[in-house]
Amino acid sequence: MINFLLMKPVDILKKGLTQLRNLTQDRRTTLEAVLKANQPLSEADEDWLDNAGNLVDEEWVVEALDCTSDYERELAKLSEKDKSVVQKLKDLASNGEKTLESLKKLKRKRSSL
């Protein structure tokens, strides 16, 4: 736990993003194989790829905060949606036990903001 407290804020977000990638990798790989085989995806699989399996927002937030010289100032400028991404990544970094289902709920909540 002390190591976590000594980490830079952006490194905590990177750790959370890595956790999220690990959680989604197997399903993403399976669905990509289905698509490469020109097989149709179920509506649920398409929804997952568009929402919980889509990590573009998470990657963008981490990159934006990693490239800034003033983390706190840049964090304050983020939208509420992006701040929810930050919180989700912090939660994943500190507690990698979140399930994909709870992440899906967070993603849906973010899209409704």
What does the secondary structure layout of this molecule look like, with pairings?
Elements: H1 2-6, H2 9-36, H3 43-50, H4 56-66, H5 71-77, H6 80-94, H7 100-111
Helix pairs in contact: 2-4, 2-6, 4-6, 6-7
What does this 3D model show about the protein?
Helix 4 (about 55-65) crosses helix 6 (about 80-95). The model has no long low-confidence stretch (mean pLDDT about 85). By secondary structure, the protein is mainly alpha-helical. The longest helix has 28 residues, at about 10-35. The protein has helices spanning about 1-5, 10-35, 45-50, 55-65, 70-75, 80-95, 100-110.
Provide the structure class. mainly alpha
Largest sheet: none
Name the helix and strand elements from N-terminus to C-terminus, one letter apiece. HHHHHHH
Give the overall shape. Answer: elongated
Mean pLDDT level: 87
Strand content: under 5%
Q: Which runs of at least 5 residues are low in confidence (pLDDT < 50)?
A: none
Helical content stands at over 70%
- Rounded Rg: 15 Å
Q: What is the number of helical segments per DSSP (H or I, 4+ residues)?
A: 7
Separation, N- and C-terminal Cα atoms: 33 Å
* Number of separate domains: 1
Number of strands: 0
